[in-house]
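Below is how a single chain appears once it has passed through the pipeline. First comes the sequence as given, then the structure the pipeline wrote out for it. We keep one example in the README because the format questions we get most often are answered faster by looking than by reading.
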Amino acid sequence: MRGVRLNYLLLGDDGPVIALSPGGRRPLADAQLLADKFAAAGYRVLLHDRRNCGASEVSFDASASEYDIWADDLQALGEQLGILPLYAGGGSSGGRLALLLALRHPASVKGLLLWRVTGGASAPELSKVYYGDFIRAAQQGGMAAVCATPHFSDCIRARPENRELLLAMDPDAFIRVMEAWQASFLREAKMPVIGASEAQLQGIAVPACVISGDDPIHTREAAQSLHRLIPGCALHENVVGPHLQIDSATAEWGEKRNQVAAIFLNFLSGIGGAAVSAARVR
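Resulting structure:
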């Protein structure tokens, strides 16, 4: 896709299409149990491994932020599969991808399903995990050290040819991309939610539903900002939390999967997304 091979899965035989993306750089399997509930309720669901994630190819380009690139990849994948426009959804970094798809390709998005929105004073700490650790690895041990990091080790296991692609990169070029992406991330961390300014959010013209997180990185305030700024955005709070630790919050989101699906299915039914009932969620 745009010169990069993407791993994807399309669930369901018919109905409106929803593209779901998990948080962090997690593989598509992280969102599949939730996707199964949408498929059982009459939707088609697109899951894909973003570039540099899961079983997709690795590729690094400093011409845009990592999230802009992911949004353009999803746009191209949707075009190739002939499934646009669609509903875009995601949690944490997957939510940023959905928002950026709506901002960069508004004609391709019919609505937004967002949970665990990232924002707040602690959110910039994610830049270390997303970029800083890889910069340090490349500085200390070159691309072999990057291959040995837990994330890229997983990418290599899922797609063995990723090792050759990584080892073929010049470490200094890799570092420059990581530094550019990190700088972009830190700039955007000052926005109401990472990745979108007030003016951009106010310009979103499709229905949106957000389920608030409640931990130091996925704050209630970030979700409230979306509710305030996106015209007509529906907000659901107190589904999870409060949590002081990210790991315990992540575990609870898994436990609340049925409730999350029911909220989004009710929302979709209310905006005419499909004649489905939340009662069908099991």
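Confidence is low (pLDDT under 50) at residues 275-282.

See the next section for the split statistics.
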